[in-house]
Every structure is written in C-alpha cells, then in structure tokens.
Amino acid sequence: MDFPPARQYFYQETHQPDEQIDLAKAALYIAQEEYPHLELEEYLNALDTMAAEVQEQLPSERYPLRIVQTVNHYLYDDLGFTGNTSNYYDPRNSFFNDVIERRTGIPITLSLVYLEITKRIDFPMSGVGMPGHFLIRPNVQQMEIFVDPFNRGEILFLEDCQEKLSQIYGQPVTLQSSFLDVMSHRQFLARMLTNLKFAHLQKEQLTKALAAVERILLLFPELPTELRDRGLIYYQLGYWNAAVNDLQVYLEKVPYASDATVIRRLLNQLGSNF
C-alpha cells in the first residue's frame, strides 16, 4: 500500500479483531498524519500517569457512581479538561495528542480520554453513539447510566438522554433503544474521522478531508456515503476519472438515495452516461 507510515500503522492496528484494536494508538496514528514526528509513547505514558493519579484518589468502596465521580473530579476540576464550545470544528479537537495537551476537545475525543483512564483502573466503559452527541457508559450489567464527558462528566439516566436528544434537535424526538447501542472500536474510529472530515471541510482543506475519508474507507470499505464524499472531493480537486468511478459505485449501491438526482446530474457533466 502506498500510504504514509502513519496510515500503514493505522491500517495494521485496525485490521485485527475489533476487541483487540487499541483505540488510543489508532487515534494517535490518525493524529500522526498531521504531526509526522508525534511520539505515541509520550501520550500513552500521559494516559498511564492520569490513570495512576485517579487510582490514588479512588475510595476504598469502589461503587460505579463513586468511581465516575472520582474520575470527573480529577479530569474536570484538577486537570481542567473542557468541551470546546467556542470553536467546535477546530481540527485540533479531533487530534488525540492535541486533546491531551490542550485539555480541550469534542464529545468523542474527550470520551476517549475518559475511556482510556477507566480501562487502566479496571473499570471498563464503552462508547455510545447517540445521534448528535457522543456518550459513554460503564460495562456493568443492568446499570442504565450514561456519562457525558463533554459536559464535565454529567451522569445521565434514560430520561435525561431523551431530554438531551430533544434539545439537540430542537423538537421532541423519540429515544430509540438503538440510539444507545454500544459502538464497536471501528465504529468509534469512523465517527472520530467523520468529525475530522467535517472540520477540514469547514476550512476548505480538501486534501486533508480526503485523507479522513480514505481512512474511514479503510475501516468500512463499502460505506456508500463515504464513497460518495470521496467522489465529491475528487471532483472538487479535479480528479475527474476517480470522481466518476466513486459516484457511479455510490449510485449502484443506493440508486434511490435522496441525492441520487444531483449525483446523476454531476456525472452527466463529467461525461458519464450513468
């Protein structure tokens, strides 16, 4: 594969059984394309140190809510981690090294910090891809609580998730059980990369947005929306043949997509008879 070294490491890390993927390493490989001289061990050691300091603060009776409260106090009060509400689409919010250094991020990257610490103190948690807002939850059977790392580790119950969802969309939205499904590691990384893609598109950094799409397609090679987005970016960059190929495959996969008419019109402009 003709990939930069960081992309090759990302590919190797993510092409093994999902449960064996090291999310922190994979996230740092994403960042390493932006920062080629990034040393992974520096940030993995930082996570180890944070976890060790949390471990020292844990109460003798380690009930789940007490553990969450201890992690919250450490991350948000002691270290000052915070959600970036003023510049949400700053790409640095999606680079794990920047999040650790700046102690600022978006829901999914702050969630990753939280997950990595709780994993190290033997209190594993998982990501929950609720639409519009990423959450995490303890891997404790029959315990329906969720944690919002973007909002200082706010503890949520099901009714709180319903309320938050309606706030996000500005209208009543029915909370479906699938909205709170635990994400696989590959899904987690794809969501990280999707945020990065949008951050680069906001800044019209097309080549960097393309790199984000390419890595999503390493995780899910047949994902129609990403094939479409890659084709559209190819088009904007002037790679006509590559654009035609991706957009044709997109229409083959989802011929009745809501944007199919627009894509067909674009293909006609590019000289395709699709």
TrEMBL record:
Pfam families: TPR_9 (PF13371), Transglut_core2 (PF13369)
Lineage: Bacteria, Bacillati, Cyanobacteriota, Cyanophyceae, Oscillatoriophycideae
Annotated family: Belongs to the UPF0162 family.
Organism superkingdom: Bacteria
Name of the protein described by the UniProt record: Protein SirB1 N-terminal domain-containing protein
Domain (Protein SirB1 N-terminal): residue spans on this chain: 42-193
Membrane-traversing stretches: none
